[in-house]
């Protein structure tokens, strides 16, 4: 047989394979038509470069890389949609940063509603990522644009609020005084309402309207002991957050409580002047839940669509946090001491100096309505 004949028969085999797979796809399409859904997801962000996919950057693995691979392997989306997520109308609710975890992330996309869909997706995901729920939504639904508010929590060792001369060699002995916790919460309450947060992200001019953000709630809960260390959880709810905004909001309060900065720096940080705001470590940050109040009001009672609330999944969300998110934060903190290392950098910041210049940090671009 000549080379040409060889090539010819190889091409025929390939063509036959293509026809077969095309036929299988057509069968799948008929049996499982594509529908617009939301997936409720939880994940531990350690070891991942954030949520959002960066096509062509395979060495920086993201949560979406593993999610898309699982959607393809389980047969929910065609393989050729993997590289073009627009084809499946994919949208995440919040673009969590490197190392940040989520207990209630929501993504919207078109999938084939195969049998036992949640189980099949989870079979193809690593244990630190899990799909916890699925609901049908309207055709035009977009998880980012339809989201009214986002709630984050931040778990930290309470030694973060110790006086600046406290011996950090003895972290396990530190206990937060009730008066200090009261002061912490009084400072966090100052963030409530609408303020100009241009100093709490990068590359944002004070005159940029998108720097104005609305915060509805921010407080620190009662301390608790884990592995002999005292921890506490801060909760913050707002309409939307800019890149690094929450970590900087927490960083500035820590600097004031420890005595590195005067309380008036908070008011000044919302003005037009440039203020040096420290950014707390990313380790303890968790996207807790996303809120769809307007959508629920409009479509939740129409008889066709469910409200995007996850009361039934609450126990599973809690179990995932206890199994995968909290232990990772606590172990990493106890072993690597990211908060204590960061605290050592606070004296380098100059909280008194101001300038009218806009921060010029080209590393982090923000999309205006994305999250920390």
From TrEMBL:
Q: Which GO terms describe its cellular component?
A: nucleus
Instruction: Give one GO term, molecular function aspect.
Output: tRNA pseudouridine(38-40) synthase activity
> In Gene Ontology terms, what is a biological process of this protein?
mRNA pseudouridine synthesis
Q: Has UniProt tagged this entry with the keyword Magnesium?
A: no
| Domain Pseudouridine synthase I TruA alpha/beta span(s) in chain numbering | 189-293
Q: Which residues form the active site?
A: 97 (nucleophile)
Q: Which sites bind substrate?
A: 152
Q: Report the locations given in the UniProt record.
A: Nucleus
Q: Where is region (Disordered) located?
A: 1-30
Composition-biased stretches (Basic and acidic residues): 19-30
Q: Which reaction does it catalyse?
A: uridine(38/39/40) in tRNA = pseudouridine(38/39/40) in tRNA; a uridine in tRNA = a pseudouridine in tRNA; a uridine in mRNA = a pseudouridine in mRNA
Q: Which InterPro entries match?
A: PsdUridine_synth_cat_dom_sf, PsdUridine_synth_TruA, PsdUridine_synth_TruA_a/b_dom, PsdUridine_synth_TruA_C, PUS1/PUS2-like, TruA/RsuA/RluB/E/F_N
| Keyword terms of this UniProt record | Isomerase, mRNA processing, Nucleus, tRNA processing
What is the uppermost EC class here? isomerase
Q: Which Pfam families match?
A: PseudoU_synth_1
What does the record give as EC number? Answer: 5.4.99.12
Indicate the quaternary assembly: Monomer. Forms a complex with RARG and the SRA1 RNA in the nucleus.
Question: Would you identify the family this protein belongs to, as annotated?
Answer: Belongs to the tRNA pseudouridine synthase TruA family.
List the protein's name.
Pseudouridylate synthase 1 homolog
Organismal lineage: Eukaryota, Metazoa, Chordata, Craniata, Vertebrata
